[in-house]
Amino acid sequence: MNKISVVVPCFNEEEVLSMFYKKTSEVLNEIEDITYELLFVDDGSKDHTKDILRALSLKDDRCEFVSFSRNFGKEAAMFAGLKKSSGDYVVIMDADLQHPPVLLKEMYKAVSEEGYDCCAGKRVDRTGEGKIRNFLSHTFYKVMQKMCKMDMSDGCGDFRMMSRQMVDAILELKEYNRYMKGLFSFVGFDTKWIEFHNVQRAAGNSKWNFSKLFAYAMEGMFSFSTAPIVWIGNIGTAIMIASILMTLFGLLVHVTSMFHLVCLILFLSGLQMLFVAILGQYMTKDYMESKQRPIYIVKETSKNLS
Ligand code: UDP
Ligand code: MG
Hints:
Pfam families: Glycos_transf_2. Keywords: Cell membrane, Glycosyltransferase, Membrane, Transferase, Transmembrane, Transmembrane helix. It is a multi-pass membrane protein. This protein has 10 helices and 8 strands. It is α/β, with parallel strands linked by helices. The mean pLDDT is 85. Helices cover 51% and strands 17% of the residues. The protein has an 8-stranded mixed beta sheet with strand order 7-5-6-4-1-2-3-8, sandwiched between helices. The chain has 2 domains: 2-129 and 155-207 and 295-304, Spore Coat Polysaccharide Biosynthesis Protein SpsA, Chain A (Alpha-Beta Complex), CATH 3.90.550; 224-291. Magnesium ion (MG) binds at residues 94, 96, 98, 201, 206. Uridine-5'-diphosphate is lined by residues 9-11, 13, 43, 71, 73-74, 77, 94-96, 98, 206-208.
């Protein structure tokens, strides 16, 4: 009999957890010939998330939890869940019911019968999300797709069911900077995409704010692409050629314009600062990797989880 592990990262999700447990268990109970575990990862919540998880794990021994010592971020929470999972198939889904549990049936069919290694949900719209966030996310994924030459299109989130082989491959990647969407794409394997419409959060608010999303986007960009360094080189070369041509032009025609000079100096110094910052990003990534710090620190686990 196959076992499905469902990994659920939770950060301040007290309002939705009971509903999530009810809906997801209902669907899992309907899938024939399987056993399952619900593996909640409390990512340093400040509300009553942990109390609810404790109660759930006492009530139902298929529910287990790991609780972090502080908020390490969703990527770290997903990693911890994958590491603790023991199922033949592992699902990652959000706690807020934005990932419809009913799709688990179709996902299980794809991985257990149709021969796929992974079945992932692709959100086809973003109704209910802010227009600015919508636009920025869309642009980000377009740029990433081009830069990384990896399949990371908009809407392809973390909601997926994977084979044990794929999960083990992801766990083999020991890097500190874990941008999951990039890691999924990096390990490869046959993925079936199933489309679903965006649903509003069942309760509570999104745990992302602009600065968190910006940091997440930068993480993705600098961990999975070295294209910005190539751009720097190209732009630098172009500026050098342009300045040589301008010097030659200045020798032929007499030009004096203080204003233009000041503009040029300001522009170039800004450009240099930007380039230094981009290079710095790669160096900090390397710096973080070299420290070999743990990706997360566990404070408490449910009794039935070693
Ligand atoms: N989450 C987490 N740690 C964080 C932020 C979010 O574990 O630092 C979890 C959150 O509890 C939820 C999932 O990641 O289960 C997705 O978060 P959210 O619904 O806030 O994101 P959105 O749907 O707005 O992209
Ligand atoms: Mg959500």
